[in-house]
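Collaborator request, handled under Task 6.
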Amino acid sequence: MDPEDLEPMAWRVESSFLYQAARSGFIVAGVLILAVGAVDMVAGRARLQEYRAIIRDSPPPEPHPTALFPKASEAQEQHAVAEAKLSYYQLLFLVGQLLAAGGVVLLAIGAFQLRLRTLRMAPSSGTFH
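Structure tokens returned to the collaborator:
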């Protein structure tokens, strides 16, 4: 046996967990996608509350007159715009959730691969301690 085999592996930058994680494409992509998803969720939630309050406080839209091409009042237009923006921010929040979930999945895959790689690189000994 070599004396080098008996000594614990010396610490090197290449053997650090952060270095290995930064070199894993799954982990890097997972962190980035998770961050984008989290930002989308925060922005969407803030705007959702704002536009729900606008719609709740606005008067209900008037019934449509019998004219073929009725002119919309300013209140009706503001209500329609607020509903459209509310729908947009609901979609933004949903996409943020999906991106965050995808980021977590990518992180899990990367962590699993990193764990397998470190187990393969670990020196194996024939005895248990």
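The cover message to the collaborator said: "The mean pLDDT is 81. The helical segments are 3-6, 17-22, 25-57, 74-121. Please let us know whether this matches your experimental observations."
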